[in-house]
From TrEMBL:
InterPro entries: Mutator_transp_dom. It holds the Pfam family Mutator. Residues 1-23 are annotated as: Disordered. Residues 57-364 form the Mutator-like transposase domain. It comes from the Eukaryota. This is Mutator-like transposase domain-containing protein.
Length: 392
């Protein structure tokens, strides 16, 4: 077996200390973002292709059972003695498999591939857990219950999130750039000015009601139906929340911290939760020329006049007034909801037979109202007949 020397007891020159080159400790190695940034630049190029290895994958094994069986089945090719397997250099879920035998030679095998100098498995499990909605404490709890390891430290976890954010942001920017180019191509084919686009916008929140601390709004293209831009709004910052207790107890330290952290604060919204959608969509309109070299000349709304009013007040394009069109899907939904509520609150309207507000009639009325060209003739004929009985 090849590798470095064994333990100190076997060293023939105990007084001679070999100077080791510092390559970073297990914490600083995992926190490195240089490799991620370099890869992100490659992804940002349109011609990049990401190789996929079909034979690459992870599995969970019980270390002692598996490697005890291996130890009993293999021998060192040099001294012909049994080989002992053990773990070393633990770094989160990553480690080195150490092979030792009687000839005092050691071989180290990494348990996973590296991203730069960091263990890929640590970034992968953080990413996977985040996709499942599980945070840092949940990840460490999972590792403990599965008896895998003690988990990942706070600073390492934060650094891994930063690496994931760098990579994800670059991929996202590339995707929406492709989508915007495709939208402009289709818009031009339809006989419109290439860079004058029609978009639809909507927002969602972390939880229902008007007390959510987080919201996200998205704009999609008319022809592609793909996301052209999105904006996250937050009225809460975890770091600021931790420091707010020192604002009164240690104002000097708080002011020093705040000056350095102010630009990194994740809270980017003041006001009600409902206003998050308005502010986010307005900001996306204002940056459309810088982001995609395009103007969103027509806005397809969801019935909320406040958002369109916010766009008009902001005047994102000096030489152009944004036009609003109503989304027929939202009109149909609201009309159907109101008709069903009327049927529920007025028992005499429901039931079967002529003159009754049946579910079928409600569907026909809503489709007729929204002007669905494929069914409007059929609906108009039947709706007129039934509506006369209903209103008489």
């Amino acid at each position: 077996m090849g590798g470095s020397k064994g333990n100190k007891a076997s060293n023939t020159h105990p007084s001679r200390v070999k100077k080791r080159k510092f390559h970073g400790n297990r914490h600083s190695i995992e926190q490195d973002t240089q490799f991620t940034s370099a890869s992100a630049k490659k992804i940002g190029r349109f011609d990049v292709k990401v190789p996929v290895a079909s034979n690459f994958g992870y599995c969970i094994i019980e270390f002692v059972s598996v490697f005890s069986a291996l130890s009993a089945s293999v021998i060192c090719k040099d001294c012909k003695s049994e080989v002992a397997f053990s773990k070393s250099s633990l770094r989160g879920l990553g480690f080195n498999i150490l092979l030792e035998c009687k000839c005092d030679k050691q071989t180290k095998i990494k348990s996973c591939s590296l991203v730069g100098s960091a263990c890929e498995i640590n970034r992968r499990i953080v990413f996977a857990m985040r996709m499942l909605g599980v945070g840092h404490q949940g990840l460490n709890l999972f590792c403990g219950l599965m008896d895998i390891c003690q988990g990942i430290g706070n600073s390492t976890y934060a650094s891994i999130l930063e690496n994931i954010h760098i990579a994800a942001s670059t991929v996202y920017d590339s995707i929406i750039s492709f989508a915007a180019t495709e939208e402009k191509d289709l818009n031009e084919r339809a006989g419109n000015i290439r860079n004058n686009l029609t978009v639809s916008g909507d927002g969602t929140w972390k939880k229902r009601g008007f007390s959510s601390l987080f919201g996200v709004s998205t704009l999609i293209g008319k022809f592609t139906g793909k996301t052209l831009d999105s904006k996250v709004k937050s009225s809460f910052c975890a770091t600021c929340n931790l420091w707010k207790g020192k604002k009164d107890s240690d104002p000097v330290a708080y002011e020093t911290w705040f000056k350095n952290y102010q630009e990194e604060c994740t809270a980017n919204h003041t006001g009600s939760s409902g206003k998050m959608e308005i502010d986010a969509i307005v900001e996306m309109f204002q940056r459309s020329e810088d982001k995609h070299d395009a103007k969103y000349v027509t806005y397809v709304g969801d019935g909320d006049s406040k958002t369109f009013k916010g766009i008009l007040n902001a005047e994102p394009y000096e030489d152009l007034l944004v036009i609003k069109k109503e989304c027929v899907g939202h009109v149909e939904k609201r009309m159907g909801t109101r008709l069903r509520n009327a049927k529920k609150n007025n028992k005499g309207m429901g039931g079967k037979g002529a003159g009754k507000l049946t579910d079928k009639l409600i569907n026909e009325l809503t489709i007729l109202r929204t002007g669905d060209s494929s069914t409007s003739r059929f609906c108009r004929r039947n709706a007129k007949r039934n509506l006369g009985h209903f209103l008489s």
